[in-house]
Specification:
This protein is α+β, with helices and mostly antiparallel strands and 118 residues long. Helix content is 13%, strand content 28%. The protein has helices at residues 75-79, 92-101; strands at 16-18, 24-33, 40-47, 53-58, 63-65, 68-70. It has a six-stranded mixed β-sheet. Mean pLDDT is 83; it is low at 110-118.
Length: 118
């Protein structure tokens, strides 16, 4: 994965997420790190009516530009992502479900702990 951002992953919190078509999606709420590499891998953004739902977006392919985080996915795909509670940790099956939704394979997907279940 290409991390978009240099400093601390916390610097992503509060950035405006912009989709592949230039549409604003919402603001970054949380940053999730890979269990094995400790690198930032996912962010959550509030979506849905009244912004009550947090939706996961992969950081792969994302680019920071000022106070915006541009992601290579369209808003409809982001909003249709599987409903997973943003409780501080993604288990491997949840992460695998998200990667399938975004049409991606897990970076470095070998047999290490934290990879898809066998």
């Amino acid at each position: 994965m290409n991390a978009p951002l240099g400093d601390a992953p916390q610097s992503l919190t509060g950035l405006q997420v912009v989709d592949a078509e230039g549409t604003k999606v919402g603001k970054v709420q949380q940053v999730y790190r890979d269990d094995a590499t400790n690198e930032p891998e996912w962010v959550t953004v509030r979506t849905g009516l009244f912004g009550m739902k947090e939706t996961f977006i992969p950081l792969a392919g994302a680019q920071r530009s000022g106070d915006e985080l541009h992601v290579p996915h369209v808003k409809a795909t982001i909003k249709a992502a599987p409903r997973i509670d943003a409780n501080g940790h993604l288990d491997p099956s949840e992460e695998a479900e998200l990667y399938r939704h975004y049409g991606m394979t897990r970076p470095g997907g070998g047999g290490d702990e934290g990879d898809e279940p066998r």
